[in-house]
Amino acid sequence: MFDSIINIIVVLLLLIGLFFMLAGTIGFVRFPDFYSRMHATGKCDTLGEGLMLFALIIYETGYEGIFKGDFEHALFVSIKILLLICFILLANPTSTHAIAKAAHDVGLQPWKKTDETQWMYDHDLETDEVINGGEIR
């Protein structure tokens, strides 16, 4: 009975983690610019990886430790996974911030939504050059 409850909890955490990983991947593919793509992958991947690793901790201590009787080994492995979660929670946001700051420092501008007719005023269609700095004539 207790082992089936552990398996259900582990599967639910793995599926929720998979959902967040998939949402981050879809955000990476669908979002329009570098900064929003970094935001989607940074947030969703951190949460998805954390949930999946937490499911492994529950499986290791609950199933391998309690039911198979090797609790010391399971506890040691769970502590390693917990340290990995802590590293991911520190490294992912820090690296995302550093990459976004580097992109901003080199001049990469965020995407801005314009109205659908703005292209008529920004470019000369014959020469494909910007007219008057994009101002409406």
Description:
A hairpin with a 4-residue loop joins β1 and β2. The longest helix is centred in the middle third of the chain and has 35 residues, at 71-105. The model has no long low-confidence stretch (mean pLDDT 84). The chain is 75% helix and 3% strand. The radius of gyration is 24 Å and the shape is elongated. It is mostly helical. The N and C termini lie far apart (75 Å).
Report how far the terminal alpha carbons are from each other.
75 Å
SSE topology string: HHHHEE
- Count of all domains: 1
**Could you report the average pLDDT, rounded to the nearest whole number?**
84
Major sheet: order of its strands?
1-2
Radius of gyration (CA) equals 24 Å
Question: Which outline best applies?
Answer: elongated
Helix content: over 70%
In this structure, how is the largest beta sheet organized?
Answer: 2 strands, antiparallel
Structural class: mainly alpha
- Strand portion: under 5%
User: How many strands?
Assistant: 2
Helix count, DSSP H or I runs of 4 or more residues: 4
Uncertain stretches of 5 or more adjacent residues: none
What is the compact description of this entry?
With 137 residues, the chain is an all-alpha fold.
